[in-house]
Amino acid sequence: MNDTVVRLFTEYLDLTGDKAAAASLVLADALTSKTPEPIIAEPENCRSYTVKDAARRLNLSSKKVYQMCIAGELRCFKAGRAIRIPVEEIERFETER
User: Fold this and answer.
1) What pLDDT digit, counting tens, does each position of 1-31 carry?
2) Which of 63, 84, 85 is nearest to 12 (CA)?
3) How far apart are the first and last CA of the chain?
4) Which domain holds residue 91?
5) Tally of domains within the chain
6) Does pTM top 0.70 for this prediction?
C-alpha cells in the first residue's frame, strides 16, 4: 500500500474505531474525484457539530455522515484529528432535504 492509503486508513480508523468502516471510507475517498473545500474555522465565532452530534440531529448514522463529508455533500473541516461540521451546513442540509 502507498503511504497515502495507509495514512487515510489510520486516520479513519481513529475516527470510526471500525476497520471495515475505515477501509470503506478510504475506498470511497479514492473513488471520489472531488474533494470538499475545507472551511477555515474562526475560533471566536465557530459553531460546529461533531459527526456523532450531526448524525443525531439529522437522524442518520455516523457512518453516513462521514460518507457525506467525504462525498462533499456536507462541508466539514478538521479540528485536530476530529471532523467538525458547521451549524450553518447542517441547517442548509435540513432545508434542502
Assistant:
1) 567 777 777 888 888 888 888 888 877 777 6
2) 63
3) 38
4) 36-97
5) 2
6) no
